[in-house]
Amino acid sequence: MKILICGMPRSMTTWAFNVLRELVSNPDLQTVWIEPTAEQAETDFATGETDFLAKCHHYSGRLAASADLIVYSYRDIRTAAVSYHRKFHSYCTQGQLDGWVASGRAWLPRAQIVLRYESVERQPLEAICRLRRVLVHRFGEDAVAATSDEEVLRRVNTAFERCQKPTEIVYDNTTMITPGHRTYQPHPTELAGSDPGLYDRVEREFAVWLADYGYVHSDDHGQELEYQIANHLLKSLDAPVVVDVGVERGSFTQLACEAGATRVVGFEPLPRHLDYLAHKYAGIYQVEIQPFAVSSQSGQAQLHVATDLEGNELNFHHTLSDLGDSATVIRSGKTLEVKTVSLADLATQGQFPSGIDFLKIDTDGHDLSVLEGLGGLRPRIILAEYWDSLPDTSGKNIYSLNDLTHWARSHGYERTIVVRRHARIELVELEAPLTLPGDWGNVFFLRQDFDFERVRPAIENFIRTAYENLCNYVSGLERDCEAKEAEIQHLAAAVRQSSHAYSANQTVDTVVSPPTDGQQQSPVPNTDLTFQLAETTARIQCLMADLRAAHTAQIEKEEVISALANTVMAYRLAYLAIKPLGMLLSPLKVIARHGRAMLRPRLGNLNQYPAQALTPTKILPCATQLSAMPTISIVTPSFRQGVFIERTLLSVFDQNYPNLEYFVQDGGSQDRTVAVLEKHADRLSGWVSEKDSGQSQAINRGFAKTSGEIMGWLNSDDLLLPGALTTVADYFNRHPEVDVLYGNRLLIDENDMEIGRWIMPGHDNAALSWVDYIPQETLFWRRRIWDKVGGQIDESFRFAMDWDLLVRFRDAGARFAHIPRFMGAFRIHEHQKTSANINDFGHQEMDRIRERLLGRIPSSKEIRNAALPYLLKHVAIDLAYRVKARLRTR
Questions:
Q1: Bigger pLDDT: 43 vs 488
Q2: Beta bridge pairs of residue 443
């Protein structure tokens, strides 16, 4: 029995080592720590006849070949680097980090069981159970102790705790636990000192590794360089038509839209991705997502759904090709039967554009089949993926870069741009079809009539920048090597000095050889004795070095302990003196602790406190007497909000406002929305369910069917609070000069539970040029101002259409007013448009408005400074509101 635990430093290897030590029934099990330079220990493990349990952090082919069971463990490399620094007070060099990754790539295909640090931390008993099962499978039940998993965990925890006591620093060769093995490490958001910089540096440098192992979720999956090149190529085309085969999470489709594509046809067969894409591109007219897999011919096929080692479905690596499993990607566990289409067939049937400007293919090992299904289609630019044997992630591909290039050249594509990666190397090359194992990337094929000279400067700049980055990387490695060499030379000099000092006090034993004829007797060194002496000397030198190091460490620790003792004594003396003062200052401490939270603006904060019951009747008293009942027209734009829309409708119906015109404009939802609308049709002024270009067009279509004097729209996941419409009508009756009116906002979750409040200050026209905090669900206006600004929403806006409308109202001379009452509830949920779209195109639209108003796009700092007076007024009125609310509850 030879068991080897290997893995990334600080990644649970010692924990796994001790669990196995408890699980193996053999009491004579030999335990050994094998360092990279420990050749004898490696030889003993490989050739010994006894049972071994060994641990190492480096890769060795000899160890791998001789082990009966290999356990590999890994963790987030960012936290591994920080933990290493916190324990050893030493930064990991680039070479060390690369070494960890390279070692993992070598061990993963050979390991019988893989442990993920974060999973073991959450469920240690499950990890022990997995280790027990693999031991039984490998060596039989008799080789495994009968100790329960719970008892094994208790013993291991006790062993770690015993070694961590500050008054008893111990190291046991049997457990291999050292002080600091359980070093406390804060959450990444709470790191201090130099640790955040180290964490961020490792994240930047190992973004691909982190994505491959599921620690970060990047839609472009480490292909930023290809996307930058694609962006330049797309912008060189006039209103391009784009086909995206393998949309996944839609990052390339989004890029194409932003680069000016007039039409994007995407193909994605995975249901989970399709649901996400339906929400992401709802109402975006130029994007069309087809639920098919693309191949060389139309029909049916099995889609291999990729999961990680724990069975969690990945965002990437799903494929029609039977590539098998890799070290970290499992494709054999789940398949789906999907419909396949060839692009040529779709074009023949008239269901697909025959003139394709840009074809992007990312099918994880099926790209060549997609190309073979093009028939007579010849896109101007093709982007395809390749790799050459990546055993830890994608596995072995069934086609090569050379195969793709051969197809392209035989079909009229004379120029290629290759993005090549290999470990930490990233290059951009022209006409480079050959690869080595470990290479991966993407290739652009440009049709012979494409004007390459137009983009040549940009492409050459990419090539130059990638080469400069490579040179800088190599220079960094050289510096690391030079630093290590200097350290080695320093240690070697210390060893030589110790050796000379030792030799000066020793005599060399010799034996006298018998004389031969005619020769005098002379001393001749005994080679065996000399070898033994040299070996003994080396051992003594090592012991002396260890003793010196231990003595120095002891002195340093005693100095630290002495300093800490003095500090503690000084603190105790000082504490006795200031204790009475501390009691007097205690109330100030409480105020200081809560002051920051009290003075923090709540506008823009969408989740302020734990969910609590919503009690709107206590928030907005309903007015009962109105001098007039103006017609109020409300439009609800809707798309796939069947979960919430009935609650929205009821919040309007329950207003019991007698002169209400309520119209719902749905975008052709396929969920239960239509059933809800049919159920309440008799209480609506009307409703339509038809395809539109998005929310803005839906609002315009709805208002075109209304005629009320007062107008407003309510999104299909938000609510009106009781009495809101009566309050609006009453205020407009009493203030005929006011054109636009709004109130305060409640924030609610998907279960109608309250999670926050926005208390608005008085209206500020100047602030509206910089920020828009006006709660849209509480916003109402007169039809006269609507007609004055053109009578419609600007349909080019998908996110900031309400801000644009407010600015147009202001610039047309509208009089605004704010009612200090809660009038609407804004819902926060997973598929909410505001949260989902603000990073995709929301910031772009907001910058567009600011540039129109200010003549430039201001910096974030300028925006904060300009909004500060408005936010300070908000803080003051919000604080006053909370104080009054607290007093009312007493």
A1: 43
A2: 384, 418
The C-alpha atoms of residue 805 and residue 299 are separated, in whole angstroms, by: 49
For the chain, counts of helices (H) and of strands (E): 27, 27
Residues 754, 608: Cα–Cα separation, whole Å: 9
Least confident range of 42-46, 146-150, 547-551, 685-689: 547-551
- Kindly state the average pLDDT of the residues 749-778: 92
User: Which residues, other chains included, contact 576 with Cβ-Cβ below 8 Å and sequence gap of 6+?
Assistant: none
Residue-by-residue DSSP string for 337-371 = EEEEE-HHHHHHTTSS-S--SEEEE--SS-HHHHH
CA–CA distance from 384 to each of 255, 371, 388, 438, 509 (Å)? 16, 9, 14, 17, 74
Instruction: Give pLDDT tens digits for 678-707.
Output: 999 999 999 999 999 889 999 999 999 999
Q: Is the pLDDT of residue 622 over 50?
A: no
Q: How far apart are CA 779 and CA 731, in angstroms?
A: 13
Give the three-state DSSP class for 175. Answer: coil
Distance CA(283)–CA(280), nearest Å, equals 9
- DSSP 3-state percent helix, strand, coil across the chain (nearest 5): 45, 20, 35
**pLDDT exceeds cutoff 80 at 368:** yes
How do residues 724-746 score in pLDDT, each as one tens digit? 999 999 999 999 999 999 999 99
Angstrom CA distances, 29 to 47, 71, 72, 73, stand at 15, 17, 20, 22
Is the dihedral angle over the CA atoms 637, 643, 645, 651 positive or is it negative?
Answer: negative
Say yes or no to pLDDT of 91 above 60: yes
Element (H, E) at 287: strand 287-290
Is the Cβ–Cβ distance between 760 and 689 less than 8 Å? no
Instruction: List CB contacts of 174: < 8 A, sequence separation 6 or more.
Output: 21, 31
Question: Exposure of 637 by Cβ count < 10 A (0-12 exposed, 13-18 middle, 19+ buried)?
Answer: buried
